[in-house]
User: Fold this.
Amino acid sequence: MERGFEQLILIVVILLAAVFDFVVRWLRRRQGKDESVGAGPADEQPLLLEEHEIELPEAPAVERGLPLPPPAPAEVPVVFRRPLPPPAIKPPRAARRLLRQPLDARRGIVMMAVLGPCRGLQAADREA
Assistant:
């Protein structure tokens, strides 16, 4: 009986939190609408111009004729720098041993014996 009562209280608390969140959002939205409709200064509201009131500057006249030749490439000054030293040669690394100690080899052999052959490599005919 007590467990059902605890679950009921938990459900009521979750529902109250959801209702509270809904009411807070509704009040904020309502308060935001009241402020936007309010009597704010007229300077803050955007000024809308009608089409005949807008004055656009006239574009300069473009002469139609042959296209202009491309501009001459700018000369790039040649800067002489001393050559970079060759990259350092790293000594070849010794081959890394997979099995560092004989104990590792022994563990691998035991693991192979316990697990057995790889079943992914077996043919499907043998399983049926």
